[in-house]
Amino acid sequence: MEREFILEVKDLGKSFKNLEVLKSIDLNVKKGDVVAIIGPSGSGKSTMLRCLNRLEEPTKGQILFHGTNILDKEVDINKIRMQIGMVFQQFNLFPHLTVRRNITIALTKLQNLSMDEANATADRLLEMVGLAEKADVYPSSLSGGQKQRIAIARSLAMNPEIILFDEPTSALDPEMVGEVLQVMKDLAQAGMTMLVVTHEMGFAKEVASKVIFLDGGYVLTEGSPEEVFENAKHERVKAFLDKVM
Amino acid sequence: MGIINGIINALTSVVNVFVKYDDMFLHALLMTVMLSLATVLISSVLGSLMALMRISNSRILRGFATAYVSFIRGTPLMVQIFMVFYGLPLLGINLPTFEFLGTDFSRFFSGLLALVINSIAYVCEIVRGGIQSIDDGQMEAARSLGFNKRQAMLYIIFPQALKNILPALGNEFVSVIKESSQVSIIGLAELMYITTTVRSISFRSFEPLLIVSLLYFLVTSVCSYLVNKMEKKMSVSNRSSN
C-alpha cells in the first residue's frame, strides 16, 4: 500500500533582506520517514527546517501538511504547530518550570487536559526517555544530554505527527551525544516521522530512510543513505563527505 | 559639653513637636502610603501593558508607547502634576470635591493620576528590559508547542522576566514613595504638605523635617525589605532542584 504524504514542500524560498538563503526547495515526506538533512554550514538547513512550522516565514512556495497549505492566511498556525513538534539545538527548556511542568504546560493550557491526565502523560514520557527520577527538578540541574531528552519528551507530549530536530546534538558534550541519539533511534523505530538537521553522519547512515543534501539554497541531491553516501555523484557532495567522514 | 546639651535639647524638641502634632503626621503618613501603594499597583499593570505596546509589531502602538515614555521621562514630575491638576478641568473633567481621608478627593485623584502617569513610563522601561532579556529561544519553544504569542508571553516569558526585574521594580517603588512628596504642591495632605503646615503653626522648621524624613525612611525601608524577601523567595524556587 502506498503511504500517504504528510508533508509536501514545493518551490520553498526564504530571503533575509537581500540575502537569499533558500532558493527553491522541493521535498516530500511520507509517514514514518526519517529524513536526515545534511550540508555545509550556511547552506540553509536550519532555515528550511524552521520554515516548516513557520518559525521563519517563507518568502515563496508552498508547504502542504496533509494537503493543506500552511502558508495560507486562513490556516491557524498554532493548531498546525501542535501537530509538528520541534527540538532545538539549545534545548530551550523553560527554566522557571519543573521538568514535569515543562512537559505538561502545553497539555493543560492548550489541550485542556486535567493536571492529573497531563502528569500521567509526562510520567510515561519521562519513563520512555529514561528520566523518570528527574520529574520534580528544575532544568538548571540537568546535564545537556538530559535536557535534550526532556525537550524531546516535551515535544512528544503534544502527540505530534512529525518532529523537527534542529541539530539536536550539536550543543552537547561528546559523551552525551549517544544517549540523545538512542532516544531518537527508538522514536524512529516506533514509526515517528522525523526531519533531522544533523552533523552526525553515522546517525544519518544508520537511521535515516532518506538523506537530503542542501547546498546554496537548493537540494543538491537526495536519496537513500546508500545512494547519497556510497555513490555520491555530485562533486560538492563528495567533497563535503570526504571532509566530515 | 555645649554640643551634647544642644543635641539633647534638639531631640527633646523633636519629640515635643511630634507628640503635639502626632495625629496630623500619622494621618499624612497613611495618605502617603495609600497614594504610593495605589500608584504602584496601577502603574505595574498599566506599565506592563505599555511595555507590550512598546515591543509590539504594530507601528502605531509602538510609536505611541515610545513617544509616551520619552515625553514623560523627559519632563519634570512637578510639571506633570500641575498639568494634570489644571488640565483635567480644561478637558471638561470636573472631579467631585468631597472629603476623602482628610483631604479633598479631587486633589487626591489628580495627585494619584499624575503619579501613575509618571510611573507607567518607568515601569514600562523596566518591564521591556526584562522581557527582552529572555532568550529568543524561549518564545520559539513556546510557539513551536502551539502557544500563540499572548499565551507564550503570559505563561513562559513574563514569569521569567518578573524574576529578573524585581530588583529594578523595587527601586521604582521606593522612588514612587519619595516622589509622592511632590504632590504636596497641589494641596494634597500627605507627609510633605503636613510638614509645611506644622512648620508654620509651630514656628519650628528643623523638627518637623527630621520627623518627616524618619517617617519616609521607615516606609521606604519596609518596602525594600519586602522586595528583598520576595526576591529571595523567587530565587529559592529556582534552586530547589533535588
Reading the helices and strands of chain A in chain order gives: EEEHEEHEHHHEHEHEEHH
Class from helix and strand fractions of chain A? alpha/beta
State the share of residues found in helices of chain B, binned by percent. Answer: over 70%
How many helix segments of chain A? 9
What's the total number of strands of chain A? 10
**pLDDT average of chain B, as an integer?**
91
- Indicate the overall shape of chain B: globular
Taking the alpha carbons of the first and last residues of chain B, their distance comes to: 63 Å
State the separation between the terminal residues of chain A, measured CA to CA: 36 Å
Strand residue content of chain B? under 5%
* Shape descriptor of chain A: globular
The quaternary structure here is heterodimer
Tell me the total number of β-strands of chain B.
2
Q: In this structure, how is the largest beta sheet of chain B organized?
A: 2 strands, antiparallel
- pLDDT under 50 segments of chain B (min length 5)? none
- Judged by helices, strands and strand pairing, the structural class of chain B is mainly alpha
How are strands sequenced across the largest beta sheet of chain A?
A: 6-7-8-3-9-10
Strand arrangement across the biggest beta sheet of chain B:
1-2
How is the main sheet of chain A built? Answer: 6 strands, mixed
